[in-house]
Every structure is written in C-alpha cells, then in structure tokens.
Amino acid sequence: MNLVIERLTDLPNIGKVLNEQLSKIDVTDAATLKKLGSQQTFLKLKSLKAPDRFYCIQMLYSLEGAIQGVSYTKLPSERKTELLNFFRKNS
Q: Are 33 and 41 in contact (CB under 8 A)?
C-alpha cells in the first residue's frame, strides 16, 4: 500500500518557513509542487521579493529533494550541477 503524501510539511526539506512561503504562491500540496517543479517554484518564490539571502541554492536543492522524496543532500551530483547552473542564471 502506497502512502500518499499531500501536506508539504510531510515532504523532506519542507519546514515551517518554506511552507509559509510556498502558501503565498498557492503551492499548498505536494501535487502542485511536483507539477510546477523545483525551478518554476523557485522563480515564483523569488517574485515575492523577500530579502535576497532568503533565495539561496539550498532552497532550490530543498525543493528538488522534496519533489524526489529525499533529503537535499542526497540529490545526484548531476542534478545539483543542473540546479546550480539554473540558480546562477536566475540570481
């Protein structure tokens, strides 16, 4: 039996602060996050105009890890490189 995770805080890497930010861009469940993907979600979060230090590479890794169901530290190095390149282009 597969457990369906719906609340964002049930996903790895999604704590209270990130969950609050995600709710501001209408990402309130795991399905929406997965549909948007980490990169589009990150760009939408950046549009909130919080202090720049809030939008770090770890946030992007955390979003990707949440989508993949793993800690951001467990992401494959190739994917981290892709995300880092995206981050640099969009910072």
A: yes
